[in-house]
Every structure is written in C-alpha cells, then in structure tokens.
Amino acid sequence: MRKDKTLKLELIHKWTCPYSAQVRDFIEENGLKNRIDFLEVDETEGASDRLSQLTGKTQVPCLLIDGEPKLESRDIIQWLDQNLVGAQGTARA
Ligand SMILES: N[C@@H](CCC(=O)N[C@@H](CS)C(=O)NCC(=O)O)C(=O)O
Question: Which CATH number goes with the domain that contains 51?
Fold first, then answer.
C-alpha cells in the first residue's frame, strides 16, 4: 500500500447510520476531513451503485482506498489510525 499524499480516500456513509457517525467522528477528531471525500449514499449521485458494485452489499460505512473498498467501521477506523494519524495528529499518508 502506497503511503503518500496521492492516496485517494472516499467515505461512503449515511447521515442516519451510527456506524458511519463513529467513523465521521474519528475523522473530525483527528483533523482528517481534508484528506477524505464524503459520499452520502442517499445524497451523492452514483454512490449507492458504486457501493453495491464494489462490495456486493448496501452496507455503510465503506472507505474506498484508491478505489478499494474497506467495510466495517472498526476496521476503517483502525486503518485511518494506522495510516493517517501521526503522533501529533497530523496526516502522514
Ligand atoms: N458492523 C458494521 C455495521 C454497519 C451497519 O449495520 N450499517 C447499516 C446502517 S447503520 C447498513 O448499512 N445496513 C444496510 C446493510 O447492511 O445492507 C460496521 O460496524 O460498520
């Protein structure tokens, strides 16, 4: 996995989903908002189709890492923590 600024990160999420909220909260708390594009599944055209094409599911949240989907809020947060959150809260990926 590349660890550079060109890594494209997209979060397919839903406002009303508590698991999506946990991921959004982590992103907010760690100052990562400017590194991630947010695609609300009901508001963003094509997001739902893309989600089902990539995962075969309708489950959110889903983090797309250079187009590769990662499901499960715990795994998404762990990935963000390990790959983006630096010792002083700065993005390093
Ligand atoms: N274990 C999952 C649960 C995610 C989940 O249940 N999301 C709901 C919305 S809150 C969902 O997408 N339900 C529709 C589906 O699973 O197809 C996680 O932690 O991310």
Answer: 3.40.30.10
Q: Is residue 1 part of a domain?
A: no
From the list 45, 42, 41, the residue with the least C-alpha distance to 11 is: 41
Cα of 18 vs centre of ligand 1, distance in Å, is 9
Q: Does residue 19 have its Cβ closer than 6 Å to ligand 1?
A: yes
Question: Domains in the chain: how many in total?
Answer: 1
Asked whether 59 lines ligand 1 (CB < 6 A), one says yes
Question: What are 29-80's pLDDT values in tens digits?
Answer: 999 999 999 999 999 999 999 999 999 999 999 999 999 999 999 999 999 9
Element (H, E) at 49: helix 47-55
